[in-house]
Amino acid sequence: MPQSALWEPAVPAKNIPASNVGEYSSYFRNSLNAMFREEGEERNRFLQQLQEDRWTADRIREELDRAQDAESLGTVMRKLRRRIMMGLILRDITGSIEFAEVVQVMSDFAEAVIQKTVYVHAVELAERFGVPHSSLGVPQDLLVVGMGKLGGRELNVSSDIDLIFFYDEDGECKPTERFPKQRKILTNREFYERLSKKIIPAISDITYDGFVFRVDMRLRPNGDSGPIVGSSEMLEEYLMTQGRDWERFAWSKGRIVSAPVFTSQEQFETQAKNLKDIVRPFVYRKYLDFGAISALTDLHAKIRAATKQKALTGLKNGTNVKLGRGGIREIEFIVQTFQVIRGGRNPKIRERSTLKALDVIAKEGLMEPSKVERLKQAYVFLRNLEHAIQYVDDQQTQLLPDNPEQKAKIAAMMGFTPEVLEEQLKEANNFVADSFDAIFQTKSDETADPWPIGWERGDEASRPALVELLQMKGFVKPDEVASALLGLTRLRTFRMINPSAKERLIKLAKKVISNIDNFIAPNKNKISKEELIERFFNLFGAIAGRSTYVSLLSQYPQAMLKVGKVLGASKWATDYLIRHPILLDELLDERITYVDDYTPVDTTGYMDRTRDRLAQVDENDQETRMNLLRECHHARLFRLLIADLEGRFSVERLADHLSALADSTLEIAIEEAWKTVPGIFRDIPKFGIVAYGKLGGKELGYASDLDLIFLYDDDHPDAEKIYIRFARRLMNWLTVTTSSGVLFDIDMRLRPNGESGMLVSSLDAYKKYERNEDGTGAWLWEHQALTRGRFSAGDVDIGREFEQFRKEILAKPRDPKETAEEVLKMRQRMRDGHPNTTSLFDVKHDQGGMVDIEFMVQYLVLAHASEHPELMNNFGNIKLLSMMEEAGLLPEGRGLEIGDAYRRYRKFQHEFRLNAPDSIPVRVEREEFEQEIALVKETWNYVFPSDIK
User: Fold this and answer.
1) Which residues contact 403 (CB under 8 A, 6 or more apart)?
2) Phi/psi of residue 322, each to 5°?
């Protein structure tokens, strides 16, 4: 970890008395001298008043409302700015105000100034030309968009304000009852051009009383060469046809800061909404937009270059705390990157304030909370330093001068010595730069390797040179890898993408070849370089046509490294990632780094976030909602997979998390599917899901089927019809394959009467079937399955009723011999269904394997739960084995030993499945588990003695 990662801001000691503030701020001193020619009681009272002043938005507006015309407004605004500025400087230097209040006051002041200026000048124009109207006769107002720090409500003390002017619709000015005179007919555009040309100088012109704000209009469409004001339609056309990437980042801060003049509040909000609806899809794309990273990286590089050039050619030397390395702009870029990439899918992250946006980034798990806290501290430190620099002479500068005397004054205003300030700035810059570089690829990753000309076009003539290069890289089968490389460039998706996307993909392929050794997991499942290359290129083939994912891997070095680790560790994970490339985004979610065996099994956050995202989708858009549920489930599962591959989970703990995830996803699926059923008669269904098998025993794997039954307990006359309809709809939600994949494979064969039975049963019918009082109900093997049954999701009352009934069934006295005979018949049928003709040991199905252990546990529960009711608890096989030993049903020490054997089997099966498809049996040389096999067989003979068999 870089030393900068340990940085913490020093506590400032601001002890400058109010009477000495002028020694540090020439602006404050000159302003005070202009107001009071000599020291005295009146001057002291004014200083005391500045110290006590608290400027709220309402108070600022009250002060501005004293002006009723343009001329008096100009004077009032300028005098008010001076008073506010002097108060902020005095209170900040003396340590009686925090950063948040400084920027809030300046933002409130700017917003009030804009609204009052627009109002006064718009009214004066309307008195001459009438009111702008749309073609349908709706009054039109000027929509002033505040960009940059004004948009984020984080304005500097000496900042300019970035503004853009719009109106909603074209039309003409018309007389109204309030403004009956009309000297000349103006179009809406002409009216607002005149208004704009009055607003800008009214705010920015320097008079005897100073200025209010410098106004910058260069962010408008087409910049300085564009019209000073435009309609919403003009903006829409511009953004669609000419909008550039940097404008997306600029508009992420955009906020309407004007207020109604001619319209009602409702009309104004409608016009404002029209503008927002145009900007939103331009800034925030529906997909995860990693392509924006390249644009932001290029923009950042240009800013850094321009800053260096300015420093070289300028007359002043110093450190730029905004645009320099590790400066304010890099923190803003980090935030805007997350926003532009993810804002289309997660509206929460669209927060305009940098500090508030950082809080959202931490809460959403996009960055480690401790790192976010450090970035916030660095941001406040740098912004406070920026203010101190600007306090000196009310200049819009971010340059900390090298001059020792000037630097000492600025350090004193910050509450530091010059040495401490310099050290704090260095540490803050390094931490921010390290954080920035960890996200962006800021250095060239070109290799010096002699790649042959033409291979990136698929030219077969390049093969010999390519093979020679790959041999030099240590590949055992270089011709095979050369074929993979050339094959990548011949893919249809590769040929169809644009040149820049091709170039990024080619660079990725080169990077993989050059760094292949870094991606291979150092364990017993280590794979060859050639196999890993095949996995990489299969992934590249899947994402070649999706430039956003190529950009992600190109620009995020850490993501590329994590992808390589995943591909090198597991074929199952590779295939899962290829099926769901959207999960690449999860590699940047730092929540995956703090999930381990000690993490509580709690899916509350997952359910809350999923419900929040569903709430943002139209309830009638069922396809999108189904996709979203799949994406949320896949993302959560993938985080668990990453933690698993990094060795942070035991098999048992992983199964607990996977089982809880399945339960929670089923819960949300019930909520969603119920809303789509026609004819429902209640808001929440009286419906429950019971899980058997792996999910029932909380031993779920990544690709396990869910063995489920559906129950309802509702006396409504239409209950049966509605719940049958609902069960079908729920199965659709769970099993249908959408563009985002599938949720689960569901097995319903354990329901009453199996495949010939109803998809859903009433609770009473289920109980009657399980009790088998008429001889047409459940078989013993179904009660055997019930030993692993548990309530999974849905109505908690049904869950409670089921759990009580399950104990009733399991507690029934059973003849041990008859029970054993039935269990052994079922075990033989399973063996017959999974023959093993090899010399290898089938870990799951062979004698001495996992299924034998499971059958022993299930038999002992059925045969002895009536006298040992504690065995009815569904605690999982390992815990139950220990309990059975305590109950005297197993020899002393045997429960623990068999539990350890079962644990070893499960671990091996789990690791095997990570690199082999389900169609391949989990088999291994018998020597690997010789002791375990013998132990299980011995225990089997103890549990099922020969007189029972």
Assistant:
1) none
2) -100, -55
